[in-house]
Amino acid sequence: MSKLYNKQLNYVKVICMKCIIIGAGASGVASAINIKRKYPKDDVIIIEHSDKALRKILATGNGRCNLGNQKLDISKYNHPELMGLYSFKEYIKYVESYGFKTKAIGDLIYPYSESAQTVRNQMLKEADKLGVKIHLEEDFVDYEVIKNGVRVKTNRDTYDSDKLIIATGGKSTKGLGNDGSIYEILKKHHYTIVPLHPGLVPIETKENTKLVDGLRVKANVTLLENGIKVFNEDGEVLFKKDGLSGIVIFNASNHIKNPTYNYEIVLNVLPDFNGDLKENYQQFSVKTEFLENYFSPKLVEYFSSRISDKNYIKDLQNFKFTFKDFYDFENSQITIGGISIDQVKPNFESKSEPNVHFVGEVLDMHGPCGGYNLTWAFICGQKLMS
Ligand SMILES: Cc1cc2nc3c(=O)[nH]c(=O)nc-3n(C[C@H](O)[C@H](O)[C@H](O)COP(=O)(O)OP(=O)(O)OC[C@H]3O[C@@H](n4cnc5c(N)ncnc54)[C@H](O)[C@@H]3O)c2cc1C
Predict the structure, then answer these.
(1) Contact 51, 38 (CB under 8 A)
(2) Domain ranges (residues) in the chain
(3) Are 178 and 26 in contact (CB under 8 A)?
């Protein structure tokens, strides 16, 4: 039993309370479900400052929610060790226990309905069935570690709880609830925050790309950090008016660790330059003739202006852009950086503050596109209980 202080009404009522979770996102709701399944009698309350639980889920996977990957490679996370003994089979069994079937499209896993709304509805139904309480439009303000628990302060109340679980996500997409206010609170509690920057995000380049804004090209993309290859992947690059986008560029952006270094994004826009293409290219007397056979007119104009007349094949295979900046947090899918993992135990409890836990994107843990980040958020809920 612990006490709840209600400042507004100025009285103290005694209630049974065990666990307060901050944030009704993927990791917060997954944690609440797992705690309730293991300890059905515990009181579990989620404090969410927006007016809707699991709002971001609706935006994931273009509304389809790509929640896993058949070929998930844990070495692609920045801290693979946190994934422990990950098993794809176990993971699918676990997410399906929320009450929906899944299916694979290529390697990517989606709810069978291909609707993120299904994931949101079924998770909230399961949480409700288990008795999880969700307080919407309530803002987490601060906390204090007290004897055998944590005193949690919000803009409405002060709660005494046995455990506090911080599941506030990062700074990306403020419109979906992530205002980054958590980092100021945690700095007061002396946590080291690994520097934050937008992740899975378009890149602004020094080279002008206005002419080809909105056009796409298939390419093999290499990222060079001070001249050294740190990333390579095939994909479709989408030109923006001032830079580059597309999944392959999002994945490359996660490898730009120190924006003060020199980063170059090198496109090979002839990834299939072999066989017929290689044998026949000499029939074209000038580069524009070659380009016109393979690219749309605007791309021909753009590439022509940036490649040599003689070595145009080599130039197209080595088409360089210089990193200028990331697009902002509002345009990013995830936040890179966060609470340093050195500060948490394997069950995500803080090493410095007993009974305070961190789950999901608020920790310095991230992966590429393709279901990696939701996998991490959902799995946290399980690991908390291990
Ligand atoms: C457009 C988009 C598409 C994406 N698509 C995919 C995809 O297809 N597959 C994939 O794996 N990942 C995808 N992601 C990434 C994925 O959604 C996140 O990594 C994941 O949701 C993180 O979960 P989380 O619980 O840690 O944080 P969040 O989902 O961000 O939840 C945090 C919650 O905490 C609340 N909160 C924050 N501060 C406070 C406070 N002070 N008080 C109270 N509440 C607070 C927020 O309102 C929010 O509801 C996508 C992200 C975006 C933006």
Answers:
(1) no
(2) 2-197+331-383, 203-326
(3) no
Judged on CB neighbours under 10 Å (0-12, 13-18, 19+), 34 is buried
What pLDDT, in 10s, does the model give residues 125-151? 999 999 999 999 999 999 999 998 999
CATH of 2-197+331-383, one of 3.40.50.720, 3.50.50.60, 3.20.20.70, 3.40.50.300: 3.50.50.60
Per the DSSP assignment, residues forming a β-bridge with 154 are 140
Measured in Å, residue 25 CA sits from the centre of ligand 1 at 6
Shortest CA distance to 163 belongs to which of 56, 335, 34? 34
Contact call for residues 68 and 88 (beta carbons, < 8 A): yes
In angstroms, how far is the first alpha carbon of the chain from the final one?
Answer: 24
Phi/psi at 83 (5° precision) = -80, -15
Pocket of ligand 1 (CB under 6 A): 22-28, 47-50, 55-56, 59-61, 66, 139-140, 167-169, 172-173, 177-178, 181-182, 333-334, 360-361, 371-374, 377
- The 3-state DSSP composition of the chain as helix, strand, coil percent (nearest 5) reads 35, 30, 40
Task: Please write the tens of the pLDDT for every residue from 303-362.
Answer: 999 999 888 899 999 999 999 999 999 999 999 999 999 999 988 999 999 999 999 999
